[in-house]
Amino acid sequence: MTPSTCFFLLLFLCVATGARVHPVVHPAQPAAGPSSPDVITKACELSPEKPFCISVLKSQTNGGVNDLKQAALASVKAASTEAVATSELIKVARRREENKEVVEDGIEEETLADCCMSYTSLIEKLAGAESAMSGGPGPNVSVDLKDALTTADTCEKSIAGGRKSPMVEEVAKKNDNVKKLCTNALSVYDVYAKGN
């Protein structure tokens, strides 16, 4: 490259990096401010475990809850995330059982199989609730959340009837947490639905 080409290239880069982008092309996004404690408190008013509810909303949104819809959506996403993690744990446990040369307990395998089927349905219900929420409050969201909670109860009943191996105990703990998060999501959603 000749010295004049380098000079023009350097000049072009300096101008290009120093130029401001027109605001119509890239509008500035409003900064997510800190959450309003009033919004979180209001969202959790029907929750059977208010401190848990407040903690979930603060952790799911990095403290940035601006309205009840955002709070309801965050609580459904928290339940969905935990349900997916629980489903993965169940699948891993089932693989371990299937890879054993000697089947130690057929009841444990049945318990895990029942929970695996339940969690497939539960995840679909939570995804349906999340999707239905994009249009605002409606009966489908509440039905999906209640169905998800009932499905977690089904897994709990399967666990109660089976042997309590360490893996099944871990699934039981995760399932209890999913139930808690689904109950929380339903209570936050109810506040949102009544507020609109």
TrEMBL record:
Keyword Secreted: no
Position of the signal peptide: 1-18
Keywords tagged on the record: Signal
MF annotations from Gene Ontology: enzyme inhibitor activity
Pfam families linked to this entry: PMEI
Domain of life: Eukaryota
Gene3D superfamilies: Invertase/pectin methylesterase inhibitor family protein
Keyword Electron transport applies: no
Pectinesterase inhibitor domain sequence ranges: 35-188
InterPro entries: Invertase/methylesterase_inhib, Pectinesterase_inhib_dom, PME_Inhibitor
PANTHER family according to UniProt: OS08G0541800 PROTEIN, PECTINESTERASE INHIBITOR-LIKE
Protein name: Pectinesterase inhibitor domain-containing protein
Lineage: Eukaryota, Viridiplantae, Streptophyta, Embryophyta, Tracheophyta
